[in-house]
Here is the input.
Amino acid sequence: MQPFQKPLYYAGLRDIFAKRGPMGDESMHSFVKRRFGPDVAEYLIDPLVRGICAGDCREISVSFLLKELKETEMKSRSIMLSTAKKLFMKKKSEEKKSKPELARKAEHEGWSVWSLQGGLETLTDSMVDHLCNNGAEIKYDTKITSIELQGKKARIKMESWEEIETEQLISAIPAISLASLLKKSHPGVSKILQDIKCVTVGIEFKNV
Here is the structure.
């Protein structure tokens, strides 16, 4: 690749096998040439420095713009290997932070995992389409304030003062949340629901 005489990956290989430089200060040109080769120093660093500070990289200290690279060389010798190690450790740390304990356990123990083409959202989208096509009404972003059980019917009160009366009620919220909705009208049922402990459950599917 012009104007470089060799492919740029040669510069990375050169750094991997290069020895540590002098402890004292040196010019940016000297540092880059020694670690990555004359092409990088001449055709990359030299025009970069001239563009940033209108100076000559042969006369400007490496500590001016490349202090961190110089320190990395002193600590780890190879800048490329040290950078690769830092990126790998950062990625592992982010993965560990982003995954909950149950997910990490499942990954470690090799639990079976299944999904749907297009993601699990396709399941809920299909359910919504099926319900709406069969006359169901779905209310979004609607907060329920209380539920009253009256004989074989349930009266659902919402924050918007709207009420719904139904003969069938299916709850898919945690027991502790349902308990708060029944607390006024059915304290006994609410107390039972409050005593139900909530836990995170992982399910493994296997073909038998």
About this structure: The mean pLDDT is 84.
